[in-house]
Design a protein that fits this description.
348 residues, alpha+beta, 5-stranded mixed sheet, 15 strands
Length: 348
């Protein structure tokens, strides 16, 4: 008669338990794909009225892959695979060397590493998006600087996006030990394309998107030109000129503003399809002005528009990625060895 330990041991290594756990994991994966993740509770109450929202929030399906139920099922599945692998290995090592079959063992080991990497990814995955113009830079997680050198955008003949590619320069952060040679800082250029990220130690940089931002070009009284992006201002003798936005039919200048001394000046021209909206302050008086190229705004002349290309890069930190890769390779190796050994058995 089997002891209680033997019964528990057999139950934990059973194929039936593995099948049930795999079905549960598949259901969690489906739920994670269907239900939007990481939203506020009010979002789910509005999107899934009635008991639906209560079930989602109670079972933590709003963040499936870091929820307690998912992690618990994953842990039991890993335990099942571990015990099954241990039990099988002890049996294989008791056989003569020529009759051992370790393909399934590698497959099980690969699944364990794969599960560990997947859970680690779910718990530690972080993603940050930076938008860079040519010449602009940002700080990376390891302290290095990334600067956008150039970017290209290609389209198919029908106008669909074909490829985005950013050329970046990485300025490695010198360690304290090498501070004396900081002038000779290590600098290298890399190309980042869609589906071809730049991988660094501990994180990867992906090409996420590309877009253009319209700026305005103003000229001062002596003819010197300069550009302003939305929200930027240029100082004048008695105030400033602030570029607020491109003109929009729904625009309502400073609606609800507490500024009592603001007036509105309409100087738009039908000759140009889109005007720009500025806030002009002159001796304490503020005026919202719509102008088109060629017209004046305070002491400046609105010269033209400038399209500025902006590259959106996503910095992803994923500690589980190496384990996922190793686990996947072990699974493939285990399947390959098992297949070869089966063929040998058939033709023996």
């Amino acid at each position: 008669m089997k002891s209680s330990f033997d019964k528990i041991y057999d139950a934990l290594r059973s194929v039936k338990l593995a099948v049930v756990l795999l079905i549960l994991l598949a259901l969690f994966a489906i739920a994670g794909g269907i239900i939007p993740q990481g939203k506020p509770a009010d979002f789910y109450r509005g999107r899934f009225p009635g008991a639906g929202a209560d079930i989602i929030l109670t079972l933590d399906l709003d963040h499936v892959f870091s929820s307690i139920p998912f992690l618990l099922v994953s842990a039991v599945f890993v335990l099942n695979l571990t015990i099954c692998t241990f039990h099988r290995l002890t049996g294989e090592f008791s056989k003569p060397r020529g009759k051992r079959r370790h393909g399934p063992d590698l497959l099980h080991l690969g699944l364990i590493v794969l599960m560990f990497g997947g859970v680690l990814t779910a718990r530690t995955h972080t993603e940050t998006t930076i938008n860079l113009r040519k010449g602009e830079s940002a700080t990376l997680p390891d302290g290095a600087k990334i600067m956008l050198v150039d970017m290209t955008y290609e389209q198919y003949p029908d106008g669909r996006p074909k490829t985005w590619e950013s050329t970046v320069e990485i300025h490695e952060s010198p360690s304290q030990a090498s501070a004396a040679v900081a002038v000779q800082q290590d600098t290298r250029q890399f190309r980042i394309r869609v589906n071809a990220p730049l991988r660094r130690k501990g994180y990867s940089i992906y090409q996420q998107h590309w877009h253009t931002e319209k700026q305005v070009v103003l000229k001062d009284p002596v003819g010197m030109g300069f550009s302003l992006e939305q929200g930027m201002r240029a100082a004048t003798k008695d105030g400033f000129v602030l570029f607020m936005a491109l003109d929009d039919a729904s625009f309502s200048p400073l609606e609800g503003s507490a500024q009592a001394n603001i007036s509105i000046s309409e100087t738009s021209s039908a000759d140009y399809p889109q005007s720009a909206v500025f806030l002009l302050e002159d001796k304490g008086k503020r005026t919202v002005v719509r102008v088109t190229p060629g017209q004046s705004i305070g002491p400046f002349t609105f010269d033209s528009y400038l399209d500025q290309s902006i590259s959106g890069l996503s910095i992803v930190s994923d500690r589980g990625y190496p384990f996922v890769v190793v686990g996947f390779l072990l699974v493939m190796l285990g399947i390959f060895i098992t297949y070869i050994q089966k063929l040998k058995g058939v033709f023996a």
